[in-house]
Amino acid sequence: MKKLINDPAEVVPEMLQGFVLTNPGVTLLEDGVVVRADHADLSRRGQVALVSGGGAGHEPAHAGYVGPGMLTAAVAGDVFTSPSVDAVLTAIRAVGGSGGVLLIVKNYTGDRLNFGLAAEIARTEGLEVELVVVADDAALAADGGNAGRRGLAGTVLVHKVAGAAAEAGLPLAEVKREAIAAAESIATMGVALSACTVPAAGRPGLELAANQIEWGLGIHGEPGIERGELRPADEVIETLLARLIADLRIAAGERVVLLVNNLGGTPTMELGIIAGRAVGYLAEQGINLERAWVGTFLTALEMAGCSLSLARVDDELLTRLDAPTQTIAWPAAHIGRVAQGISVHRQQEIVAASTVRLDEDSVLWRTVEAICEQLVAAEQELTDLDQLVGDGDLGISLARGARAIRNDKAQYDGTDDVTVLRGIAGTVRRVVGGTSGPLYAALILRMAATLNAGEPWPLAFEAGVDAIAELGGAKVGDRTMLDALVPAATALRTGRLADALAAARVGTESTADIQAARGRSSYLGDRVLGVVDPGARAVVLQLEAIRAALEAPAPVN
């Protein structure tokens, strides 16, 4: 790996600080949240606030679109890892006012879970929050037996339309309506000439030979729907546009706009070639191209390649797209003076003080310590496994969560197991992004609630597993952690942990023969066959740690 970075673990906060230093129109909050510097004034005026975000690595998205005419706030998670629920909550609380908040979310499982749960929590706090999911990926059928069409570069056009509507003073319901209409009018498809490397992983997520390209990929470095030989640019562009036109059912005489997007490592020279052929091809089809934007809008780190987004437009939509915008990343935006320093503003949060010191010799905490030790030790194993079938962040995310739990133990209220579990859930939801964070947090919270109702640990564990299924929408056979958790929970009804561990191992091994229906693995088809699901493997590792902790002799005081 060759990158201009310092510590791979610090690339996101360092990047955000550099962005804010050179953009006086925005302010940096905790949890990787960038907001408009004038967001308080907007809130007082009752203007609808727009919040978007996702994992880092897509720059200039999403912070580059924070400013008048587009987003009010953007939330950045770790590289290719959706931000945590708490990070999204930080943004909503910061910008939410009487006008309400619209969340614009790309259709990835982790983003939907974290933004969706944050919206639910914010509503309980009295904030009016709506959510729009963008799924503009024309490479995938909407009912293709996977996790659904992904959100790609067309999301930026939704930012633009919704931002203009909000700036015009429309109420939340109308801004949401226009955002949905824009999202439904867009189709996007991309092609990659090279892979990209997540700094913390240290190696590319896929390998392409010198003469190969990847068609229909997402924006996280994962493989696409098809691999083929490199072809001349004109042929590539014609193939992409033909797919988009068919997907939107655009006929001759209709009006469209075009977004030519650099995936990260494509020279401007090549973008010009791409744009030239795209304009010509649309003209040959008798399609009226009203506007075209060419540049770097939403990337996958240093990946070489491009995506094309086509949107059917009418006068209303075109008016929104033409509305004035002052952001760093949207074309024609201006850049203000360079700041000489930075001050990170922290949102104030009321945290209940711990009333009882945590008993580090308790059975629960010794078990938690064993799980944390196991996850830290297995970080590389799970990362390697996840790189084969996903985006390679599972080991990194779980190890990060394990370290945070250890670091936070002094803050946990040790009154009883229920309060300790609730504290751990808070750490997990704050620190672990992606899909794992909200799912594990839901499991722990449901376990705590079940224990609090007087039920035994086996039933609490089963209830926690049910919470994961409810929140994530998966089931046994979808090739997820549930393929290990559900058999384990069923076996644990007998009270024997050894039976639960054996069942989890069998369930995990079965995932090697299953095509995924959830998560990013669902986009890889039969490429995942022969490799066990990393999430299920992580469950086995944790159950092994629990058994070891319970079989170890108790410490002598």
Chain-wise SSE layout:
Blueprint (H helix, E strand, L loop, with lengths): L10 H11 L4 E4 L3 E4 L2 H7 L3 E8 L16 E7 L5 H11 L5 E6 L2 H16 L4 E6 L20 H13 L4 H13 L1 E7 L19 E4 L10 E4 L3 H16 L6 E8 L5 H17 L3 E8 L9 E8 L2 H8 L40 H15 L1 H11 L4 H15 L8 H15 L4 H17 L4 H16 L9 H11 L4 H14 L23 H18 L6
Parallel strand pairs: 3-4, 3-5, 5-6, 10-11
Antiparallel strand pairs: 1-2, 2-4, 7-8, 7-12, 8-9, 10-12
Helix pairs in contact: 3-4, 4-14, 5-6, 7-8, 10-12, 10-18, 11-12, 11-18, 12-13, 13-14, 14-15, 15-16, 16-17, 16-18, 17-18
Features:
alpha/beta; 6-stranded mixed β-sheet; 44% helix
Textual characterization of the structure:
It is a single chain. With 557 residues, the protein is of the alpha/beta class. Helices cover 44% and strands 13% of the residues. The protein has helices at 11-21, 39-45, 85-95, 109-124, 155-167, 172-184, 233-248, 268-284, 315-322, 363-377, 379-389, 394-408, 417-431, 436-452, 457-472, 482-492, 497-510, 534-551, and strands at residues 26-29, 33-36, 49-56, 73-79, 101-106, 129-134, 186-192, 212-215, 226-229, 255-262, 288-295, 305-312. The strands form 2 sheets. It has a 6-stranded mixed beta sheet, sandwiched between helices. The N and C termini lie far apart (49 Å).
The topology string of helices and strands comes to: HEEHEEHEHEHHEEEHEHEEHHHHHHHHHH
User: How much is the average pLDDT?
Assistant: 90
* Beta-strand content estimate: 5-15%
The 3D shape can be described as globular
Largest sheet: 6 strands, mixed
Residues in helix, %: 40-55%
> Compute the gyration radius: what is it?
24 Å
